[in-house]
Design a protein that fits this description.
The structure holds two protein chains of two kinds. Chain A contains no helices and eleven strands. By secondary structure, chain A is mainly β. Chain B is mainly β. In chain B, 0% of the residues lie in helices and 46% in strands. Chain B is globular and about 35 Å long. The N and C termini of chain B lie far apart (36 Å). The chains are: A mainly beta, B mainly beta. At the A-B interface, β9 and β10 of A face β5 and β10 of B.
């Protein structure tokens, strides 16, 4: 069974870079039928799509975050990663990684999520 | 960006009730509409994709036998509905719609279903 697990620091200082990794097990990140994505959810609020990556390295970002976001993939480790630069308190959220169905774009499998707090 | 508006924002219902939620897109999204269920402290779970297709299988981190047939979705263009034919105790949660017609992918603000 496919499993996704987010990992990374739970506390980041303002103006620094948030870095998270999603490790995929039970399946290959190089599967041709899927993207791999990041979504976040501020405490008590709704869901915001951050971006997707294909195993080849092609990326698609939310324009609202594009200037600060980098998503990368490491197929040898079956992992993909998120970097969000110049963070502020507004970036405090639970960050989820997910598998994205290529053709229709829905997120069919999710990690459990990890809370990242931006605070000095 | 395509705006997704869900109504109501919350509702109170009883076990066994038939409940219907609405999701409206700011422009036509064909059938690129998905529904998710989220319980507190958990990741969202895909219920319906492509407006009316019931997700099969059990995603990681969840138990059970997949999405029950009491969930159904309908609609196309700008107006969509999610219906639960007979509300069960495990259905009390927040439900989100999502459009994947164009980037950026966007979600509705959610409908929270509470116990009456």
């Amino acid at each position: 069974q496919l499993q996704l697990q987010e990992s990374g620091p739970g506390l980041v200082k303002p103006s620094e870079t948030l870095s998270l990794t999603c490790t995929v097990s039970g399946g290959s990140i190089s599967s041709s039928g899927y993207y791999w994505g990041w979504i976040r959810q501020p405490p008590g609020k709704g869901l915001e799509w951050i971006g997707n990556i294909y195993y080849s390295g092609s990326t698609y970002y939310n324009p609202s975050l594009k200037s600060r976001v980098t998503i990368s993939v490491d197929t040898s480790k079956n992992q993909f990663s998120l970097r969000l630069s110049s963070v502020t308190a507004a970036d405090t959220a639970v960050y989820f990684c997910a598998r994205v169905q290529l053709e229709l774009g829905y997120f069919d499998d999710w990690g459990q999520g990890t809370l990242v707090t931006v605070s000095s | 960006d395509i705006q997704m508006t869900q109504s109501p924002s919350s509702l109170s219902a009883s076990i066994g009730d038939r409940v219907t939620f609405t999701c409206r897109a700011s422009q036509s999204i064909s059938s690129y509409l998905n529904w998710y269920q989220q319980k507190p402290g958990k990741a969202p779970k895909l219920l319906i994709y492509a407006a009316s297709s019931l997700q099969s299988g059990v995603p990681s981190g969840f138990s059970g036998s997949g999405v029950p047939s009491r969930f159904s979705g309908s609609g196309a263009g700008t107006d969509f509905t999610l219906t639960i034919s007979s509300l069960q105790p495990e259905d009390f949660a927040t439900y989100y719609c999502q459009q994947t017609y164009s980037n950026p992918v966007t979600f509705g603000q959610g409908t929270k279903v509470e116990i009456k």
